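STRUCTURE:
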C-alpha cells in the first residue's frame, strides 16, 4: 500500500513540477510576444519579468490545487478538467491583477501581458493534461494488480469502481476465485482468472508483472494460502486487504465490510494530538474572523432579502436555530440562515430532499452556494464546531442512524465542522442510505485527521462554492 501511495504522490508531484515549468516558460513567451507585437510595449527589466513569472506561476499552482487539479484520484472527465483549468486561470488573473495594481505597482507589466499569458497557459495546460491523462505520460505507469477472491466481498470493487476514471491508478488483471467464495452474489462482469494459488503462483506473478495482490475472499480461515502470499511479499509484491485498497482508491471506509481486528491493527484513528488540539480553537477563531471580514456584507444582504421575502409578512426570524449532535454526543444549537418556509416542520422532523418544496425562493440560491451556512461562524467562535469535520446531524435522526448503521456513533469522536470530507465526495444526503455513504467518508476523515488533510479540505471547498455543488 505504501509503494502505491508513493507512486500516486510522485505522479502528483511530477504534475506540479511539470506544470510549474510549463507555466513559467509560457509566461516568458507571453512577454516575448507582447514586446515584439505591440509597438507601445517596451522590454521590461529582468527583475520585473522574473517577479511576474514567479507571481503568475505561484498562483496558477495554488488555484489549480484549490479546484482539485492535483488530486491523485480526481474523478473527472476531460471536459471537467478543462473547466477547472479555466476556473483556476480566472482566479489567477483576478488575484494577480489586484496585486499588481495595488501592492506591486512598480512591477506592473504591459496591459496585454496578463491576458496573453493567461490565454497561452490555458492552451498549454489543456494540451499537456490531454497527453498526460490519455497517454499515461510522466513515466509513472499504473500498478498492475490481481484480486484474490471473486465472491460477495470482491464484488464491491465491481460495483463501486465500474468506470475507467475510477481505475486510473491501477490496472486490474482480474479476479481469482477460491473455495469459500459466495459466487451467487459475487463477480458478474469482470475477468476471472482460474489459477491455483500454490507454490507455482509466484511464476504467475512474475510472468504477469504483478505488483500488488488484493485480498478480497469471503472466507480466510483454511482458504487463504499464507505461505504463498508470504513468499510473494518477500519478493516485493504488495499484499493489500480489500478494506485498505478501497480506502486508498476511493477515499472512504467501506463500513459494511469493516471488522473489529481491522480497526484495532490499522493505522490512523489518532486522537491524542495535543498540539493540534491546543491550536485548533485558535486557528478556527482566527480563520472565522478573517472570513467574517469578507462575508459580512453578503450576510447582511442575505438577511435583508429573507426578511423582505417572507420574514416581514410572517414575523419569522431570518435565522434558523436547530439542535444538533456535536463532539462526544453533546447537544448544541446550530445557527443558519432560514432557507425554508416557517411551517416547514409542522408535521415533525423530516429529511431534506434535493428538490424540497419547503425551500423558499431565496433558499434555493443560498443553499446551492452554501451562504445559509455562514451564520455557523457563531458556533465556531463558541467552540461548538470547527471549520473542518463531519457535518452535525439532528438528534432525531442520529438515534435512528445509530440503530441502523454500524459504527455511526464513531463520527462524533471529532468536533463537527462547516465543511467535511464527505461533502466534497458525496454532495447530497437525504436518507439512511445516503447517511451510510457519507459515513464511509466521515470515518475516513476520523481515521486520517490531520492539519494537512484539514487544509486540503478547506482549499477544495472553494470548488464546492465555485461550482455550486453540495449543500
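SEQUENCE:
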Amino acid at each position: 500500500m505504501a509503494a502505491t501511495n508513493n507512486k500516486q504522490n510522485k505522479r502528483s508531484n511530477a504534475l506540479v513540477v511539470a506544470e510549474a515549468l510549463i507555466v513559467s516558460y509560457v509566461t516568458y513567451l507571453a512577454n516575448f510576444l507582447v514586446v515584439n507585437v505591440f509597438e507601445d510595449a517596451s522590454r521590461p527589466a529582468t527583475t520585473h519579468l522574473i517577479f511576474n513569472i514567479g507571481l503568475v506561476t505561484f498562483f496558477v499552482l495554488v488555484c489549480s490545487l484549490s479546484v482539485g487539479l492535483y488530486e491523485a484520484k480526481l474523478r473527472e472527465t476531460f471536459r471537467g478538467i478543462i473547466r477547472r483549468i479555466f476556473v483556476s486561470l480566472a482566479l489567477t488573473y483576478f488575484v494577480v491583477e489586484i496585486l499588481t495594481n495595488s501592492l506591486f505597482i512598480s512591477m506592473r507589466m504591459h496591459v496585454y501581458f496578463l491576458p496573453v499569458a493567461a490565454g497561452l497557459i490555458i492552451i498549454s495546460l489543456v494540451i499537456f493534461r490531454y497527453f498526460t491523462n490519455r497517454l499515461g505520460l510522466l513515466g509513472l505507469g499504473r500498478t498492475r494488480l490481481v484480486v484474490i477472491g471473486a465472491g460477495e466481498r470482491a464484488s464491491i470493487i465491481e460495483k463501486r469502481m465500474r468506470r475507467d476514471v475510477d481505475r486510473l491508478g491501477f490496472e486490474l488483471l482480474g479476479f481469482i476465485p477460491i473455495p469459500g467464495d459466495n459466487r451467487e452474489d459475487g463477480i458478474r462482469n469482470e475477468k476471472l482468472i482460474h489459477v491455483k494459488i500454490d507454490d507455482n503462483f509466484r511464476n504467475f506473478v512474475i510472468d504477469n508483472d504483478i505488483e500488488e495482490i488484493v485480498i478480497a475472499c469471503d472466507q480466510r480461515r483454511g482458504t487463504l494460502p499464507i505461505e504463498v502470499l508470504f513468499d510473494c511479499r518477500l519478493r516485493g509484491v504488495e499484499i493489500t486487504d480489500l478494506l485498505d485498497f478501497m480506502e486508498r482508491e476511493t477515499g472512504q471506509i467501506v463500513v459494511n465490510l469493516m471488522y473489529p481486528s481491522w480497526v484495532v491493527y490499522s493505522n490512523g484513528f489518532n486522537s491524542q494530538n495535543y498540539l493540534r488540539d491546543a491550536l485548533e480553537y485558535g486557528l478556527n477563531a482566527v480563520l472565522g474572523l478573517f472570513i467574517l471580514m469578507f462575508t459580512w456584507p453578503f450576510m447582511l444582504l442575505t438577511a435583508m432579502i429573507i426578511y423582505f421575502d417572507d420574514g416581514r409578512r410572517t414575523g419569522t426570524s431570518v435565522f434558523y436555530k436547530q439542535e444538533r449532535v456535536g463532539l462526544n454526543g453533546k447537544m448544541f444549537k446550530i445557527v443558519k440562515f432560514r432557507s425554508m418556509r416557517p411551517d416547514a416542520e409542522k408535521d415533525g422532523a423530516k429529511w431534506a430532499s434535493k428538490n424540497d418544496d419547503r425551500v423558499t425562493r431565496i433558499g434555493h440560491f443560498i443553499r446551492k452556494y452554501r451562504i445559509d451556512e455562514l451564520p455557523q461562524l457563531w458556533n465556531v467562535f463558541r467552540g461548538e464546531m470547527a471549520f473542518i469535520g463531519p457535518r452535525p446531524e439532528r438528534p432525531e435522526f442520529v438515534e435512528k442512524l445509530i440503530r441502523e448503521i454500524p459504527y455511526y456513533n464513531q463520527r462524533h469522536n471529532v468536533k463537527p465542522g462547516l465543511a467535511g470530507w464527505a461533502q466534497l465526495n458525496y454532495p447530497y444526503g437525504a436518507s439512511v442510505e445516503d447517511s451510510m455513504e457519507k459515513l464511509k467518508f466521515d470515518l475516513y476523515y476520523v481515521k486520517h485527521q490531520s492539519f494537512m488533510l484539514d487544509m486540503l479540505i478547506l482549499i477544495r471547498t472553494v470548488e464546492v462554492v465555485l461550482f455550486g455543488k453540495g449543500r
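REMARK: The mean pLDDT is 82.
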